[in-house]
Specification:
The chain is α/β, with parallel strands linked by helices and 679 residues long. It contains 27 helices and 11 strands. It has helices at 5-15, 44-83, 107-120, 133-146, 184-187, 191-201, 259-267, 275-289, 330-343, 349-358, 365-375, 384-387, 406-423, 429-444, 448-460, 468-480, 484-496, 504-516, 520-532, 540-551, 556-568, 576-588, 592-604, 612-629, 642-654, 657-661, 667-676, and strands at 32-33, 39-40, 88-95, 124-129, 152-159, 162-165, 168-171, 189-190, 205-211, 238-242, 297-300. The strands form 3 sheets. Strands 4-3-5-9-10-11 form a 6-stranded mixed sheet, sandwiched between helices. Strands 6-7-8 form a 3-stranded antiparallel sheet. Helix 17 runs antiparallel to helix 18. Mean pLDDT is 75; it is low at 1-44, 73-85, 220-226, 321-328 and 378-405.
Length: 679
């Protein structure tokens, strides 16, 4: 029976279903079976068919694996998106207007406006409009349940009728059957119940906004306190905002929204405003809208700062000009000094060309170019000659128009050498005076680098009294002689009108020339103008390319600004991985802004795993770097997670934050830390 054709056909159908259609009667002789029942195909055609079907099966498997990968990718992306916000924000918005007795025109509209406003600043909003007693209590219960998440900010907003009875405040639901004072506690919702819900949830921060101080909905003659709500005491970590002062009546408004809610909705989304600033500005707007008749009032027990919408980090402009010095390692500096000693008296142009090739960023690069120009004069002049507007005096000292006498040039070179050597060991004011005098002697002899160093001395007031006009003059002289860093520095002076009349046209042209000459600072400043549309049409795509060009040269400001564009998706796609990499590179150069941004990245888990300990360490490093640069950071104005604050507290208790900084902090730094470290 095993050898019967019927059984063989059935066996073939079961054992190799993919090939069942390829086999039919008459093919039995061309097939053989092993002891395990595996089919061996006896013809090339059968092998090709089996191979084709195997490939089709593999393709299906690959498709399945690809689908699984996409599912995992989407899940991880959703997880990353949820991690981008370090805190959870949940709001309950109630707007009651449809009262049978004294309906309100705007309360429902106020609730809708506030719900939309809070959603725009990251709140998950529970909305209850024209809610009856049961609906209001159900909404409060759901609100309390959803608050029981770590690091939560809770906000309760109510627009509608409210009354006080026996010193307690009550919110009136729509349809509440209230006849006298004894029925208020039964049929209205006590504000105390909302407060208890917030306290029980142990939220990080509670915000209660009551646009409820409207007129008595039950008319006169009833046993209710006259006028508005009673003052409430805010539990720890709670902010209460009233539409008007205790005991006063708030206006419903003559348009679609009350004056109070309309002002709040305008001020809440403003980036960089603290909670207190939002309500202060709201109070001013309400006073103006009501002619001083309605005065909003707040009660707060907050000890930290809160921002509905943080001000995003802004790219650094060239206002705080970085010093265009070439910082060489000690061994590289010594190597260049030795090499220069061997060729400085040479009359062979190739020696100086070789030195410039070997030390393209060296201290003596410009001096080598200067000597080379006298051995093999170059009649080409920089484009700056035709760009200058005349704002900087060009009535140069004798001999400015062309190459100097060889003896004069040798003296200038010797003065520059002495200045470079002395600068390496300068420690006192007198030392710096000698350094600047030598640089100016070399500058008057025609050395471009000496012109730049002289300009910088006048610009910074180092070794001489600060004189921006003289700084601009010497920057211009150096720029005329092709010094790229001088072009960038002079461009900044034109951008901000320092030492010369402000001119964005000249600034833009000088930045372009400096960038074309390979100066990273000039490229960065040009990118900033294009990114912000300052003095030129906004072109974020080109700005991002320019930032990348300067970042490749290791320029810290370019690295930082490029990272911000990548984080914000400006000028191209959003790229958190590249942004974090560039922030780290800038942080390695002690860039205070990059250190601060990295702290935020690790605090919120943007493109990296959340790490409160690293976030706290970066905060301390950022404050230290800012103090060294004399800068002011907005660290305390940012929204930090509870976990990061705890790490700062732990660092403070185990090591001491001031010890961790490695130096005595300024009063401003002490104040910032005190605002961030919570007991």
């Amino acid at each position: 029976m095993v050898n019967s054709p019927l059984f063989s056909d059935r066996l073939k159908a079961v054992t190799c279903p993919l090939d069942s259609e390829a086999y039919g009667p008459g093919n039995e002789k061309r097939l053989s079976w092993n002891c395990e029942g595996a089919l061996r195909v006896g013809s090339a055609r059968k092998r090709e068919t089996a191979n084709w079907r195997w490939r089709r099966t593999s393709t299906r498997a690959r498709r399945v694996r690809w689908c699984l990968f996409l599912v995992c990718l989407l899940a991880s992306t959703a997880g990353l998106a949820s991690a981008l916000r370090a805190e959870t924000r949940i709001a309950l918005v109630v707007g009651n207007a449809a009262y049978s007795n004294k309906p309100l025109h705007n309360a429902r509209h106020d609730g809708e406006l506030m719900a939309d406003t809070l959603k725009d600043v990251g709140f998950e909003v529970i909305t209850a409009l024209d809610a009856n007693p049961s609906a209001m209590r159900s909404a409060i219960t759901e609100f309390g349940r959803r608050l029981k998440q770590p690091d939560t900010v809770a906000l309760f907003y109510y627009a509608g009728h409210g009354v006080q009875s026996d010193g307690r405040n009550y919110l009136i639901p729509v349809g509440a059957d209230i006849g006298d004072m004894s029925e208020v506690a039964v049929n209205a919702v006590a504000l105390d119940d909302v407060m208890k819900t917030l306290v029980a949830a142990r939220t990080r921060l509670n915000i209660v906004i009551l646009d409820a101080c409207r007129d008595n909905p039950f008319g006169t003659g009833r046993a209710f306190a006259e006028g508005g709500l009673a003052p409430s005491v805010a539990p720890s970590g709670t902010f209460i905002g009233y539409a008007t002062a205790p005991g006063q009546i708030a206006r419903d408004g003559e348009v679609n929204n009350s004056p109070y809610t309309a002002a709040l909705a305008f001020n809440i989304p403003r980036p960089g405003s603290t909670l207190e600033e939002v309500f202060r500005d709201t109070r001013r707007a309400v006073l103006a809208a009501t002619g001083g008749q309605q005065v909003p009032w707040e009660h707060s027990s907050l000890v930290g700062a809160f921002y509905f919408k943080e001000k995003p980090a802004t790219p650094e402009s060239s206002a705080d000009r970085q010093v265009h010095t070439t910082e060489l390692a000690a061994d590289a500096r010594i190597a260049e000094l030795d090499a220069w000693e061997r060729i400085k008296l040479s009359q062979n142009p190739q020696d100086f060309k070789a030195h410039m090739t070997r030390f393209p960023n060296g201290l003596f690069y410009e001096l080598a170019a200067f000597k080379l120009s006298h051995l093999a004069p170059d009649t080409k002049r920089t484009a700056w000659r035709w760009v200058i507007t005349g704002s900087v005096a060009r009535a140069a000292e004798p001999g400015h128009a062309g190459p100097q006498h060889s003896d004069h040039a040798e003296n200038a070179g010797a003065a520059f050498e002495r200045a470079v050597v002395l600068e390496g060991s300068a420690s006192s004011g007198q030392d710096w005076e000698k350094v600047v005098a030598l640089y100016q002697e070399a500058a008057e002899g025609g050395v471009p680098r000496a012109m730049f160093e002289t300009a910088r001395a006048y610009d910074k007031g180092r070794g001489v009294s600060r004189d921006l006009a003289k700084a601009a003059y010497w920057y211009g002289r150096a720029a005329e002689n092709g010094h790229a860093a001088a072009m960038a520095s002079l461009g900044t002076m034109y951008e901000f009108g320092e030492g010369v009349p402000a001119s964005m046209v000249d600034a833009l042209q000088l930045y372009q020339m400096a960038s074309a000459a390979g100066d990273a600072a000039g490229t960065t400043s040009l990118a900033y103008l294009l990114a912000e549309g300052k003095g030129a049409a906004r072109n974020e795509k080109q700005a991002r390319k320019l930032y990348a060009k300067a970042a490749a040269q290791g320029h810290s400001r370019a690295l930082f600004n490029l990272a911000l564009m990548e984080l914000q998706g400006r000028g191209g796609r959003r790229d958190t991985y590249s942004a974090v990499r560039h922030l780290r590179e800038a942080a390695d150069k002690d860039h205070a802004g990059a250190l601060e941004e990295l702290a935020q990245v690790y605090d919120q888990g943007i493109g990296v795993r959340r790490d409160p300990a690293r976030a706290a360490a970066y905060i301390v490093s950022a404050l230290k770097a800012a103090q060294k640069e004399g800068r002011t950071l907005e660290i305390f104005r940012r929204r930090w997670s509870t976990a990061t604050r705890r790490e700062l507290q732990r660092l403070n208790s185990t090591q001491g934050l001031y010890s961790a900084m490695g130096e005595e902090p300024t009063a401003q730094t002490r104040w910032a830390l005190s605002r961030m470290v919570m007991p």
